[in-house]
Fold these 2 entries.
Entry 1:
Amino acid sequence: MDLTWMQRGNCREHPPATFFPSDGVGVDRARRICESCPVREPCLEYALAQHIDHGVWGGTSERERRRILRRRRSGQLTGVS
Ligand code: SF4
């Protein structure tokens, strides 16, 4: 699996704990960093493929990733909303 995208993420310039928030305010803060990240898509796909339960990846919270996986399993369109 190609993980070179990790070297280009916006999160390199922030403490790792930023992306493992304990509340909704922290999730929003991490999401804002992800918004302009050039590797948002591979980051999200990695988290989905690896079933990563914790943290903000690709601009999504754990709950959002569970929702995306449910949609994919049920054959609906993919994406974040
Ligand atoms: S999308 Fe967010 S978590 Fe993923 S690499 Fe970019 S900044 Fe980091």
Entry 2:
Amino acid sequence: MAVAPPNPEHAPAVLEARAIHKSFGRMKAVCGLELAVHAGEIYGLVGPDGAGKTTSIRVLAGLMGADAGEARVDGKDPMRDRVAVRERIGYMPQQYSLYGDLTIDENLAFFADMFCLPEKEYRERADRLLALTRLERFRSRRADALSGGMYKKLALSCSLLHRPRLLLLDEPTNGVDPVSRREFWDLLGEFTHEGMAVLISTPYMDEAARCHRVGLMHHGRMLVEGRPGELVRGFPHSVLRAVGGDREGLTARLGVHPRVLALSPAGSRVRVVVERGGEAEVRALISEQGATCEGAVPDFEDLFLARLREEES
Ligand SMILES: Nc1ncnc2c1ncn2[C@@H]1O[C@H](COP(=O)(O)OP(=O)(O)OP(=O)(O)O)[C@@H](O)[C@H]1O
Ligand SMILES: [Mg+2]
């Protein structure tokens, strides 16, 4: 679990983006992105498929030009000062980024060469990263023979070799088992304590809740931004848990109820996010279907689902 430094929002901004727009033909992938990520801060970009997360990250990394807007990494423009920005960022793309037929050591050496790291610095840094990621024992294993979690940790290590000020991670733990995901986050905690800023996109709500701040993106726009805990505390709606009864009938009726903002069935339970003021009505409907109803504490996923539903209606 990432441990928050005292107040990273008061640290200097390493990444700043103002009014970034990017379209592909008529598809507006990013519309007016405003963002600041500070030294020591982990900022999470959350959003459904196609929300514009990857496009935002690519623009901020200087891999793709924006149609409008400005970005700065440590004061440098990613499009104009490409070399300076490349030295300052570590980027882990959503898709495979390593050479599968090279070993762990060879992949690290390749990235060290790319960043022209002096031999001694590279050795020390690689040894430390391999110790932290517990990949030392596998140094001579080819990347395509690594487990999903090990592969991601190697990709993270490669992106950290040159001590970037800003780390851009695009769904780095997608498809990785929960233990490896936790280890990955512990590593991020280590590096942000050293002052690195992290912008990470994730589909996992538990990961979003671990970020210092999160932004919820949808159709290229940022719908909400804030500290996860504060966003959840300010959540205006109620959450109910229906247990037992006729589950099929219940989900069918709740699914079309105008006061229901989100439904998540899990086993014999159904979690229901109810619009403010609609709780009594929905409780009555749940009882009619023979289920018992209890109140639940809202979490980040409830907020995320409700906000998307509000946006779509
Ligand atoms: N190179 C491209 N050419 C055309 N359209 C693109 C291109 N890249 C992205 N898009 C479109 O832009 C929108 C945003 O895509 P993007 O990949 O940024 O979303 P995302 O939030 O990263 O999604 P996911 O969670 O699936 O990775 C989508 O509608 C996508 O189809
Ligand atoms: Mg993406």
